[in-house]
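quick q for whoever's on today - can somebody do inverse folding on this one?? i tried earlier but teh output was garbage lol. tokens:
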């Protein structure tokens, strides 16, 4: 087993090789997003931390709400728009937002500027976790093996 580092430069952490686990046609919508999984570098199991970059025009995720996982974001650079059930809110560096599990308040970020957006996203890894996507024909659930799977809203698999 490789030794975990004590400290790193976050922007130098290896990015995820894939921008998303979503099936098509949703996967392609994430091509402007790059996540660097910082928590994994240190072997964190109870919560995840990502340094995430959104290119101009990119979105953070499909607008979604978790049943079991809390989420928190902190804006480092850029000015994304936070979209929730309450509407839109422009954000700037130093601002943060939190999303309580089970609230049903679907959310995501949109980068409508010509500059990159960099933010930290922190979330717990509670399972099982169901994820609702009110704007799209997709939902996520946990299978019997504990793996996240995506289905259409009617329960049909993708593919």
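ok took a stab at it. sequence:
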């Amino acid at each position: 087993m490789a030794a975990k580092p004590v400290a790193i430069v976050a922007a130098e952490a290896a990015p995820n090789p894939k921008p998303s686990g979503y099936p098509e046609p949703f996967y392609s919508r994430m091509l402007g997003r790059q996540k660097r999984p910082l928590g994994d570098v240190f072997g964190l199991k109870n919560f995840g931390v990502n340094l995430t970059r959104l290119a101009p025009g990119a979105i953070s995720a499909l607008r979604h709400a978790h049943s079991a996982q809390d989420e928190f974001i902190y804006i480092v650079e850029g000015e994304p728009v936070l979209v929730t059930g309450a509407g839109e809110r422009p954000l700037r560096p130093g601002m943060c937002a939190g999303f309580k599990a089970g609230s049903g308040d679907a959310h995501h970020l949109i980068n409508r500027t010509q500059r990159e957006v960099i933010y930290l996203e922190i979330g717990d890894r509670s399972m099982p976790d169901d994820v609702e996507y009110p704007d799209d024909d997709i939902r996520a659930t946990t299978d019997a093996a504990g793996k996240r799977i995506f289905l259409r809203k009617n329960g049909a698999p993708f593919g």
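fwiw The longest strand covers residues 47-54. also The helical segments are 38-41. so keep that in mind when u check it
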